Amino acid sequence: MAPDTAAPTESPLIAAVDVSRTFTVRGAAGRRRLRAVDGVSLAVGRAETVAVVGESGSGKSTLGRMFLDLLAPTSGRVEFEGTDLRAMSRSAWRRYRREVQVVFQDTGSSLNPRRSIGSSVMLPLQYNLGLRPSEARRRAAELLDMVGLRAETFLDRSPLQLSGGQRQRVAIARAMASDPKFIVADEAVSALDVSVRSQVLRVMRDLQVERGVSFLFITHDLGVVRAVADRVVVMYLGEIVESGTADAVLDTPAHPYTKALLAAAPRPDPTVRDEQRSRLTGEIPSPVDPPPGCRFHTRCPLAQDICRTTVPPVERFDDGTESACHFARHVRSGELTMPLADDAGEATIEEKA
Questions:
Q1: Most buried of the four, 86, 91, 106, 244, by CB within 10 Å?
Q2: Which option is the CATH number for 4-235: 3.40.1280.10, 3.40.50.980, 1.10.630.10, 3.40.50.300?
Q3: Strand-pair category, 182-186 with 214-218
Q4: Does residue 298 surpass a pLDDT of 60?
Q5: Is there a contact between 111 and 171 (Cβ–Cβ < 8 Å)?
Q6: Could you tell me which residues come within 8 angstroms of residue 318 by beta carbon, excluding any fewer than 6 positions away?
Q7: In the chain, where are the structural domains located?
Q8: How far is CA 279 from CA 259, 297, 310, 348, in A?
Q9: pLDDT per residue over 67-104, tens digit each?
């Protein structure tokens, strides 16, 4: 059972309700079902940033594409302002398409190489907002300046003349062009230098304050999560294993997987031994044949017999954090000690001194 990560507001802007997405794959054993997302519920409030973190293959991008209606859920539904996307009228769906935008991870394929940068940013201004070409060009120049690209230099350039980081900034400017209410940012700042990343994140925060834009921020970078997110959702093998406010999840995680992700984050001084650095070995299992019980048990340094046979219940804490782990309270309190990266043996539950 996965945590139900409802937004703190009564009326969320957009919500996935018990969504699953299954793909059919061919293999030596014939056709099999790959469950990329499995029973996830997640709501995003107005002017809220929710960060979704996890390894590659955890289902983050598939979930983001269902929010965008680029993939239809196999089961469950996605609602925008309380209306199921599948039940929207044509006019309502066109409004949703304007008000929900995306920054794709692969900017090389998301920008048309036959169009100039200015043209790519101008198109949504003309078609979604109805601006005249001259006004759209002026606004496109403002948006490029906003993300740190001098308009007089970049407006007439081709995407092929830009670096990966510059293309990513163009994609962010294009997403902002339609005056959206919600943006899915899939690794939106991963290719940027640190100084430029800070500038772009500041622009996104200002946009949120000024216009009330909400973000679903898909990322591997936990440093970025701490800088931008109101809430954090941790995914593993298609399920949400932990969720809560950014401060609570990052400072006092209650799931061993979250602890392992935090341990893998770079440290300013790698020679400093951190007692929270736990051992995480192996690859994420195949979603075609997920492990029984807790899906993380095959890699978890804290796994016990119950983890291998029984799906963990959701443990809910007073601060709103939810964790799908049999030993969540022990992990959070420190009673369950995590083996260090170079230690041997299994974890044990110890009495606090």
A1: 244
A2: 3.40.50.300
A3: parallel
A4: yes
A5: yes
A6: none
A7: 4-235, 252-333
A8: 10, 13, 23, 14
A9: 999 999 999 999 999 999 999 999 999 999 999 999 98
